[in-house]
Design goal:
heterodimer; A: 327 residues; alpha/beta; six-stranded parallel sheet; 17 strands; 28% strand; B: 335 residues; seven-stranded mixed sheet; 15 strands
Amino acid sequence: MKAYQLTGPQTLEQVTAPDPEPEDGQVLLKIEHVSICGSDTHMNFHPTLPEEQYPFAPGLPCHEIAGTIVESKNPEHAVGQRAIILPTFNPGVGMTNGGLAEYIASEKVIPLPDYGDTSDWVMCQPAGTAIQASREWGTTDDKTFLIMGQGAIGLSTTAVASRMGAMKVIGVDLDDYRLDKAAELGADATLNPDRDDLLEAVMDLTDGKGVDVVVEATGDTNGLNVAIELVRHQGTIVGFTLLADGEPSMLRHMEWMRKEVRILPTNAAGALDPIAPIADMVRLRDRGWWDPAELITHRVGWDQIPDAYEMYSDRSDGVIKVAISIE
Amino acid sequence: MRAYQQTGPRRLEQVDVDNPKPADGQVVVKIECGSVCGSDTHVRYQPVLPEEQYPLPAGAPCHEIAGTIVESRNPEHPVGERVIVLPDPSSPGGPGGGLAEYIASGLLISLPESGTTEDWLMCQPTGTVLYSARRWGQSTDKRIAVIGQGAIGLSFTMIAERTGAKQVIGIDLLDYRLDKARELGATDTINANSENVVEALAEVTNGEGVDVVVDASADPDGLNQAVSLVNMYGTIIGFSQIPRDQLPTFRHPDWMMKEAQIIATGSSLSQTPTEAIQTMVGLRDRGWLDPSVLITHHSSWDDIPDAYEMYAGYKDGVIKNVLDIAGASNSGVVA
């Protein structure tokens, strides 16, 4: 099959790879649409990683994947069923296959309804991680939220918190086009740290208390410390940021202890049950509760994949989500 | 002032009583409208209470009340402000109630300036439901069944749907209430009169059962039904108030076998009885959920006894009946 693989920093090359063979319990998916995640670019595509990590396995870095099952060794999932598929994930190693390819074999299957385009349904994968975050913070209507970083994850969390009845949702980003989108999806206030004094503005918006929940989706090494500064005493931080091995991150330990802050990491891929929150999101989209496909800003084909990764990495052209057609 | 007073089972009489006096921290509200709650009819209006409880205080039984502040001894709530007001046990003349021209209270929920008072008033019952619904936690990983689809059960249905519950199953004996439930967000409904609820629930959930059962049935056997419906290790949210003379036999062994937690909820008994209602007002203001869709009837001052009869008898498709308190005095209707 045809595939892309990362052969060096910011270098995606087309290769021919063997077709994957599904094992017992797995299905073989013919991939129709995929999308790029921030972790794909800032942990994998963009940085210069240790030499021995290149080349990546064919198909990587890409883990937001939807298509149709063409072979099944799992009695619960029939051939012809459309699905979101999660790559196989080995603790300590990471993902071992990915979506920049014609086919993928995996046991992690989220069935999709039989209507609508898989390019739209695949957006339930990243948006499902916002559902995962909401499970961490619990009830919503009695809490104020600060969502740091209004990329696809932050925006999904903004939309989910707002739809669940949050008392207040404050969106933070350095890019105004993302803040505009945040307001459109339900943020009550937006702050740009280039212009606004975050601490002062957040205290103004919360009667001097700080917010109940900070969702830290910046991708920044100092994000957690800023979150500790802005959360209320005994508040909750839900951490989304993934940092590459070796990226330096210093936790301001004393500030954290003094405030008695609870920090909950959400790493959907490593979760005990990574499928459930995404299945939740599929069901909610089916019910018309929220459609994460409204995050799509660009639609591209196979040949434009390297350009799409460049664009996502640079946050150029107002990009939020890119739907990539594999066929 | 003019008021109604309950003088016996199912008997409301018009009386003339002294105007209430506010204590420090309280205000006097000129009542514009009230609404009948199931607890008003089930626990007070309808049953035969011990003789010494009659007559009830003037204005009772009615605790869903909204109007405008006309006198204030509370610096945070000025004259002219529109509020939902809760009967205040600390009032010098007793808590009073909504079936009167005025009420003194320190338990106030501020209302926005837009919109009709009666529409905002519906945030009172739905706000108490918001308080109770918090007790099941996050919704998206839960299937939730709600026994009883009156105004309270329907509010649970709406909140479960808005917060993203996996499945919301409304259960009632009356088809018109089940129709309303589907209209307001129930994914499935079961008529407990015509269907075997345990079997029907298994069918609509593909055998998965439900993680949360809300008992908003006001039926003495509601808690036992909830135990029979909930999954192992599930959660039961209790909302029903049952008169003391109708106390049920609790099927203790069934409950233990399920290892289900039962959480009794009552916003009005909490430390902060206004908080969830104020939150609901904010959510309605933002367009998140509009509980005024529950209003089916309006009654004038003179028709208030009929309104209680209708509510107690589930007549005429009633869900919520708004009582026009101020209209009567303004139009000078004589008792």
